[in-house]
Amino acid sequence: MEIHVIHYLIISTVMMFCGIYGFFTRRNLLALLISVELMLNATNINFAVFNRYLFPDQLEGHFFSLFGIAIAAAETAVAIAIIINVYRNVKQVLTDDITDLKG
Question: Which chain regions cross the lipid bilayer (predicted)?
Answer without folding.
Answer: 6-24, 29-50, 62-84
